[in-house]
Amino acid sequence: MTVYHNEINIASKGENDIIDITADVQEIVSESGLKEGICNIFVPGSTGTISTIEYEPGLMKDFPTALEKIAPKNQEYLHHETWHDDNGRSHVKATLMGASLTIPFQNNRIIHGTWQQIVFIELDTSARSRILIVQLVGE
Questions:
Q1: The whole model's pTM is what?
Q2: Fewest beta carbons within 10 Å, which of 74, 90, 95, 102?
C-alpha cells in the first residue's frame, strides 16, 4: 500500500458557494500513479464541507434553501456570543454534513455516478481561501 498526498486550493465567494472539484480530484488520482484504492478529501476548518451532488442549476438553488431550513439565518446562536461573529449557522451545517468524503478509484479513475459530482460547499458567511487535503491510499 502507498499513501499519496496533494492539495486543492479553493477561493470561495462565501456562504452557499458550491464548487465542483471533481476534475481536480481526478487529476490528483491520475498524477498519483496509483491504479486502485480510496481517495479521501478533507477540509480543515469548521465551516466548510465536502459532499456529492448533481451539479445543475436547480440543485444549486435547492440545496442552500434546504440548509436554511435546518439552520436558519434569523435564529439566535450562542456561538455568536462566544466570538462576536455571525456564523453560528455555518458551524451547525458543517458539523451535520461533515468535513470529509471518501471515494474509491480503480484503473486510475475515480468511481462516481454519471450525474454525481464532488463538491466543496462554503458554509461560512464570508468569502474564504481554503486548502483541501487529498490523500490516496492504494496500489
A1: 0.95
A2: 74
